[in-house]
Amino acid sequence: MSNKSKKLFGTIETLIGIGTTFTGDICVTNSLRIDGKIMGNIKNSGGVIIGDKAEIRGNIYTGYIVVCGLVEGNITASEGIELLSKAIVIGDIKTTILSINEGAIFKGKSSMFEKEESCSNSNKKEE
């Protein structure tokens, strides 16, 4: 993880552990780490860490995300997306900052938006 993401995830407040399968949408306001399986959308105004054993099948809306596992769905992150070397993302991504480490697999299209646009979009989704 980058220094920026380490600062963002000082304390993980919600954890979905290995061996846990959750079906349905998740809404969390603070940091979230997923090491299990999620079948549904994730809405998070803070940050999300997807562990190397995690499998997500759904769309993710967050501030910042670090992916090391599998995500099948679209990702929208207002602050940034970091794909680590074991990450597999199948879907479209939209963010202001994108970092893809060597070895990561990304199948989809990416688009960037201005920081002001991301803030106004985040506020619209929360209303």
Walk me through the structure.
Helices cover 14% and strands 47% of the residues. With 127 residues, the chain is mostly beta strands. It has one domain (3-110). The longest helix has 12 residues, at 115-126. The protein is globular, with a radius of gyration of 13 Å.
Strand content: over 45%
Summed over residues and divided by their number, the pLDDT gives a mean of: 87
Shape: globular
The proportion of residues forming helix, as a percent range, comes to: 10-25%
Count of alpha/pi helices = 2
Largest beta sheet, briefly? 10 strands, parallel
Q: What structural category characterises the helix and strand content?
A: mainly beta
Number of distinct beta strands: 16
C-alpha Rg, in Å?
13 Å
Along the chain, the helix and strand elements come as HEEEEEEEEEEEEEEEEH
Give the low-confidence spans.
122-127
Distance between the termini: 31 Å
Q: How many structurally independent domains?
A: 1
